[in-house]
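User: Okay, second chain of the day. Same drill as before: sequence in, structure tokens out.
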Amino acid sequence: MTAYRILAVDDDQAILRSLRRGLRLEGFVVDTAESGRQALEQMAGQPDAIVLDVSMPEMSGIEVCGRLREAGSQVPVLMLSAMDEVADRRAGLAAGADDYVIKPFDLGELVLRLRALLRRAGRAATGTAVRIGPLVIEPEARGVTSRGRPVEMTRREFDLLEVLARNAGIVLSRAVLLERVWGYDFEVSDNAVDTFVGYLRRKLEAGGEPRMLHTVRGVGFVLREP
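Assistant: Same drill. Structure tokens below.
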């Protein structure tokens, strides 16, 4: 089986060496970049996933991720940062990152998260379109429309919406959503599910559309026809 190719990006040489050595020991093929600009240049090598530092001179990881998503790239992005403020995590996720790890990090946990992202990215979408009220979710095309209007989704937003849509009318807890969407059952960034629910609501309710994604206090979230 061909090994996954990972692009590790960090301006800290010690961290970059640690990532290269540790990921190679786990069986990955590892390319490295020391800046955001180098990272964008090396995308021609078509990595299967990116481990991307947030704080870098000239071009931050958030800007790199934003440019990739604007260009249509859906490569999984795992962000690294020494910053632990919720606002910083949200900025990374809003730019299109799939997951977020705070420095100093445990390599074993980082590898588990990375494998979960790769597993999600490689899992073939199956089944026909899912229709909930005005929403149409097409798994094979990874497309969403509302009353015929295309709704742009990041990879993680789409995965979350698909799980909710396939369980329409059923309240799903945060733990269940983390396991089904993020692919592992240990704790991820605080309020990860809530953050992405917020992103989905803003997109689904654009133009005055009625609320379909509801919070059931103390339990979780449910998608219902308006």
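The longest strand covers residues 5-9.

User: Thanks, on to the next one.
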